[in-house]
C-alpha cells in the first residue's frame, strides 16, 4: 500500500493530474492509479492507458510502467458512452438478484458479451433487456460484466448492476478473494488423483487465439484439482483456479495430457469422435463465493450440473458397468 503524504491532485477541465509521492515508487502504473481512484476498475484503467488517455510528465506510457516519486500522472476519464447494444428478450436463469448484482446460471452455447461474429444473442443482450439501466456500466460492449466464461462453458457468472459494485467485485478478483469451483469431465485418469497445476500461461506462438502453458514466459497460473469419479478412459474432476488466466483450466488440463472432453481447441479429439452426449467441452462453473459489494457479507452460489453433463455421466457409468 502507498505511504507518505496524500497525493497532490489537480483537476483542469477534463484533465486530472496526480503526483506520485515518496514511498509510492516501484508500483505498476495501473495498480497505483487503481488505488488512487474509487469506482473505476483496474481493467477500465488499463483501457484508458492503452488508449493514450494516461500520460506521465506528458509522455505516453504502458500499464506496466513502474512509478517514480515526483512523477505527474495525467489522465482523462470520459463519462461512460451510451451502450449501443440491442436489448434482446433471451431467457435468463437467475439464481440471485438485488440492487447491486445479478447471479446467472449461464447455459452452454451462450456468448457472454458482443464480439466480432457475435454482435447479438449474448448474455449482455439478455441482461440489458432484463435490466435496461445497465447500459454504460463497465464499458461500451461489456456492461456490468465482472468476469467471463467461454461460450461452451456453462455455469454461474456475476453481473454488476452499478459502477460501485463492478469496481468492488473487480477488486476482489484482483486480490484473489473470490473463490470459484468448476466441474469437468476429462480424458483419462489424472495421476496423482489430486494435486496442483502450476505453470506460466501466454499466447500460443503461432495461433494467437489460443493460449499455452510456457516454462518461463507468460503470467503465473495455478489450479488445484481433485478427482471425484473415474470411468475407465474418463474422469470427473473438481477444479479450483487460484488465478484467472484466459482459458486457464482448459490449458492446464491439456498440459497434463488430460484435456476436457469435447474441447475441440485444446483436446486430442474432434467433437464427431465423441459420444453423442459430449458435443461441447464438458466444463461447468459450479460454484462461486465472494463478499457482497455493498454489505461485505460472505455469499456463495452454485449452479447445478446441466442436463448434457448429467446424461454424459450416466452414459459413462453404464458403459463402465457393461465393460
In words, what does this structure look like?
- This protein has helices at 29-36, 42-50, 123-130, 163-174, 248-255, 307-322; strands at residues 9-12, 15-19, 54-56, 59-60, 72-76, 94-97, 101-106, 154-160, 179-187, 194-203, 211-214, 219-230, 234-241, 283-291, 298-302.
- The protein is α+β, with helices and mostly antiparallel strands and 323 residues long.
- The protein folds into three domains: 9-76, Structural Genomics Hypothetical 15.5 Kd Protein In mrcA-pckA Intergenic Region, Chain A (Roll); 94-174, 2-Layer Sandwich (Pseudouridine synthase); 179-322, Pseudouridine synthase, CATH 3.30.2350.
- The N and C termini lie far apart (60 Å).
- The model has no long low-confidence stretch (mean pLDDT 86).
* Rg measurement, Å: 22 Å
* Number of discrete domains: 3
How many helices?
6
Calculate the terminal CA-CA distance, rounded to whole Å.
60 Å
| CATH fold type of the largest domain | Pseudouridine synthase
CATH architecture of the largest domain: 2-Layer Sandwich
Question: Quick one: CATH class of the largest domain?
Answer: Alpha Beta
What is the helix/strand order?
A: EEHHEEEEEHEHEEEEEHEEH
What structural category arises from helix and sheet content? alpha+beta
Question: What labels describe this entry?
Answer:
323 residues; alpha+beta; Pseudouridine synthase; 5-stranded antiparallel β-sheet
Describe this structure in a few short sentences.
By secondary structure, this protein is α+β, with helices and mostly antiparallel strands.
Spell out the blueprint of helices and strands:
Layout: E1 9-12, E2 15-19, H1 29-36, H2 42-50, E3 54-56, E4 59-60, E5 72-76, E6 94-97, E7 101-106, H3 123-130, E8 154-160, H4 163-174, E9 179-187, E10 194-203, E11 211-214, E12 219-230, E13 234-241, H5 248-255, E14 283-291, E15 298-302, H6 307-322
Parallel strand pairs: 8-14
Antiparallel strand pairs: 1-2, 2-5, 3-4, 3-5, 6-7, 7-8, 9-13, 9-14, 10-11, 10-12, 12-13, 14-15
Helix pairs in contact: 1-2
Amino acid at each position: 500500500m502507498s505511504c507518505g503524504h496524500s497525493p497532490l491532485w489537480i483537476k483542469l477541465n477534463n484533465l486530472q493530474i496526480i503526483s506520485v509521492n515518496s514511498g509510492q515508487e516501484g508500483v505498476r502504473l495501473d495498480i497505483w492509479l487503481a488505488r488512487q481512484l474509487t469506482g473505476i476498475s483496474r481493467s477500465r484503467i488499463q483501457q484508458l492507458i492503452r488508449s493514450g488517455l494516461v500520460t506521465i510528465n506528458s509522455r505516453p506510457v504502458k500499464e506496466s510502467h513502474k512509478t517514480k516519486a515526483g512523477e505527474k500522472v495525467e489522465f482523462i476519464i470520459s463519462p461512460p458512452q451510451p451502450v449501443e447494444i440491442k436489448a434482446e428478450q433471451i431467457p435468463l436463469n437467475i439464481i440471485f438478484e438485488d440492487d447491486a448484482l445479478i447471479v446467472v446460471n449461464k447455459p452452454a452455447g451462450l456468448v457472454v458479451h458482443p464480439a466480432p461474429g457475435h454482435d447479438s444473442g449474448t448474455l449482455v443482450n439478455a441482461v440489458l433487456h432484463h435490466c435496461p439501466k445497465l447500459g454504460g456500466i463497465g464499458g461500451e460492449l461489456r456492461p456490468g460484466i465482472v468476469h467471463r466464461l467461454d461460450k461452451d462453458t456453462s455455469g454461474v457468472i456475476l453481473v454488476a448492476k452499478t459502477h460501485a459494485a463492478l469496481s468492488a467485485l473487480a477488486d476482489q478478483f484482483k486480490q484473489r478473494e473470490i473463490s470459484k469451483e468448476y466441474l469437468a469431465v476429462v480424458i483419462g485418469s489424472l495421476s496423482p488423483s489430486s494435486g496442483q497445476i502450476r505453470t506460466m500461461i501466454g499466447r500460443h506462438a503461432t495461433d494467437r487465439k489460443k493460449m499455452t502453458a510456457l516454462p518461463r514466459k507468460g503470467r503465473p497460473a495455478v489450479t488445484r484439482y481433485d478427482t471425484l469419479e473415474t470411468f475407465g478412459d474418463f474422469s470427473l474432476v473438481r477444479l479450483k483456479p487460484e488465478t484467472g488466466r484466459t482459458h486457464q483450466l482448459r490449458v492446464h488440463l491439456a498440459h497434463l495430457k488430460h484435456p476436457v472432453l469435447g474441447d475441440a481447441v485444446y483436446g486430442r479429439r474432434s467433437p464427431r469422435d465423441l459420444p453423442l452426449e459430449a458435443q461441447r467441452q464438458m466444463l461447468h462453473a459450479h460454484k462461486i463465493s465472494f463478499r457482497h459489494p455493498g454489505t461485505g457479507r460472505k455469499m456463495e452460489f452454485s449452479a447445478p450440473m446441466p442436463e448434457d453433463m448429467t446424461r454424459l455421466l450416466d452414459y459413462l457409468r453404464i458403459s463402465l458397468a457393461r465393460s
